[in-house]
Amino acid sequence: MPITITAIVFREEGLWVARCLEYDIVSFAETVEDLRRELLGQLEAVVALDKQEGRTPFEGFKRAPEKYWRLYEALKARVEPIKARTSLLQRIRDWFAPPPVEALLIPAYA
Fold it and tell me: Cα–Cα distance between 17 and 9 in angstroms, integer?
């Protein structure tokens, strides 16, 4: 079963920021495309490390602060889902490993 994570995207101090809501994880980059890669890489790394340590993915992560959930509610109509990368190595891992990670990016910019 896939893991779905919702993130809002906004600009802060000259960088693009993605803030995950279900698990308070933050990624940032200079471009939106770099941000997508950074966020998915970070989420995939958390899942891999948790699996290696025998934990449930994202175990111990708390929800994002309430102000980010309110921003999500205000922007919900502008949802843009993205899929996890599927390199050959990742497809082989998926064959034997846990489900892929999906992120739901909510742009907070016009």
Answer: 5
Residue 47: name the closest of 36, 55, 35 by CA. 55
What are the structural domains of the chain?
Answer: 3-107 (3.30.160)
Q: Please state, in angstroms and rounded to a whole number, the distance separating the CA atoms of residues 79 and 51.
A: 29
Q: With contact defined as beta carbons under 8 Å apart, do 66 and 100 qualify?
A: no
* Contact (Cβ atoms closer than 8 angstroms) between residue 23 and residue 61: yes
pTM score above 0.70: no
**Burial of 43 from C-beta contacts in 10 A (0-12 / 13-18 / 19+):** buried
**How confident is the model over 66-110, as pLDDT tens digits?**
999 998 888 876 666 666 556 555 555 565 555 555 655 666 664
